[in-house]
Amino acid sequence: xxxxxxxxxxxxxxxxxxxxxxxxxxxxxxxxxxxxxxxxxxxxxxxxxxxxxxxxxxxxxxxxxxxxxxxxxxxxxxxxxxxxxxxxxxxxxxxxxxxxxxxxxxxxxxxxxxxxxxxxxxxxxxxxxxxxxxxxxxxxxxxxxxxxxxxxxxxxxxxxxxxxxxxxxxxxxxxxxxxxxxxxxxxxxxxxxxxxxxxxxxxxxxxxxxxxxxxxxxxxxxxxxxxxxxxxxxxxxxxxxxxxxxxxxxxxxxxxxxxxxxxxxxxxxxxxxxxxxxxxxxxxxxxxxxxxxxxxxxxxxxxxxxxxxxxxxxxxxxxxxxxxxxxxxxxxxxxxxxxxxxxxxxxxxxxxxxxxxxxxxxxxxxxxxxxxxxxxxxxxxxxxxxxxxxxxxxxxxxxxxxxxxxxxxxxxxxxxxxxxxxxxxxxxxxxxxxxxxxxxxxxxxxxxxxxxxxxxxxxxxxxxxxxxxx
Length: 470
Hints:
Blueprint: E1 5-9, E2 14-20, E3 25-30, H1 42-48, E4 56-64, H2 73-86, E5 92-97, H3 99-110, E6 115-121, H4 129-143, H5 147-158, H6 161-175, H7 180-191, E7 209-214, H8 223-232, E8 238-243, H9 250-253, H10 257-266, E9 272-275, E10 282-285, H11 286-292, H12 297-308, H13 311-318, H14 323-331, H15 339-346, E11 352-355, H16 359-368, E12 372-377, H17 384-387, E13 398-401, H18 402-405, H19 412-422, E14 429-433, H20 436-444, E15 448-451, H21 456-469
Parallel strand pairs: 3-4, 3-5, 5-6, 6-7, 7-8, 9-12, 9-14, 12-13, 14-15
Antiparallel strand pairs: 1-2, 2-4, 10-11
Helix pairs in contact: 2-3, 4-5, 4-7, 5-6, 13-14, 14-15
């Protein structure tokens, strides 16, 4: 196949990598600790991942060429991030195996703009002394210059017994090619995992995560993957799978491993929930207003027709007419004694906010699970006068109001603008509105949509169904 080895150069270091595939999306592989550089296996890797080469352009990065004497996983992540930036890579699908998974977690925590989705294979967020024992044995063999012993010990721990025996002669042959420089490099990289711990920072990860482990991991043990799961499994965009019988290097030995990666990186994952405001987050208490001001049935009928169903009301929501002009025009049509009510209704004044039962709790739950939540509403420029009365308003990351952008739902353009403004993908978002027409328009532009009928319990069920069907 003849995969070319390339080098990315930054101001402070150089790093080798290779790439293959012709897909529009980018997948980056960060390999685990190895006795020798994986750059010599470029053709074999490309062959193994050929099922992904049509969908993705795939990069595999080595560690930097010239290693400092002490080089932690955090240092590796910092340099890998610099290499990404030098190549213009961001929002990538990232697969990190073993030590590469440790680097991947640091990237997702400290450089979230670089990672769109992340798969972790046989890795640990906290390398405890008991987990480091095997690696320490490898370091000792490398320091003694026992190249064959190192290769055999390495193979014995990462592969299941049958695979190790099948590879034994190949491992012995590979050991004969190991140089003293290879051993020095291995020692530095292996030492870099000592005391690695980002468990308490995993909650900072915002991208979807797939963790794949093995029950009989002889290097890091299966508890390592479960510790990651304990911190992330409350999130709807987290997935966990544990193999049996394939060893630490299940990413090489399990026949369906890469299929699991393809499915994870290709499936749509809901990350964002966009809410309508009036009718979903809250209601206006119009009845109390009517009683307080002693409005007759005839007065109410006039206001419904001349205010709520008027062209001025629609144009005010679109932002194509000022509230003052809308008030002047409507007051020209209604009895003078109703002009005070026209003013209150147009300026959204005088009516109390009625919270939707259970909505504040739903918003908090979504936020706690890592979803990004936003508001997209058809309303006038005076929305801020009641915004802070809405329970949970502080949980929203951004708000887009029709009158402020000159567009209204159900125009498809306002949904596209919302996605651009919020920095989200339509395919990873759900829109909730009490208007079927608006929900249909959201669906038209690629969002999932749920029509809210006033029952938050029902909304929870429908949201969960949409989230998990993806």
